[in-house]
Description:
The chain has 129 residues and is of the alpha+beta class.
Amino acid sequence: MNHELALLADRIDWGYFEKEFGQKVSMILTAKSQIIVAIKAFEGNPHDSKTVGPLLERMASVNQKLPETLAYDRGGRGAKEVMGVKVITPGNPRKSDTAYDRKKKRYPFRRRAGIEPVFGGPQYKLQTA
């Protein structure tokens, strides 16, 4: 008698699964206007901290000015600076931070949460191409 999970695994279309979940798409957007300035699809599932460098190289290759700072999600922990660009990730506030300091530190990451709908379309198109 087969376990119900084994029976379910037999019914999964693994080809579709590998195509859908076998890539990672990363992009860099401008801070205020949310225009995509760099986009790259990665084979497999590299760690988020390993995707910053190739994206900045892509920007440099088309003669775009690199940003001074880059707001990244928690998965991007690793290098604090890549190609002269300061990479910031959200962290816990210090006890000595005032309410103003906490709000100021959270601001770039709240903007980042608002761009998730911008990610959806290009990621889907790159993964299915």
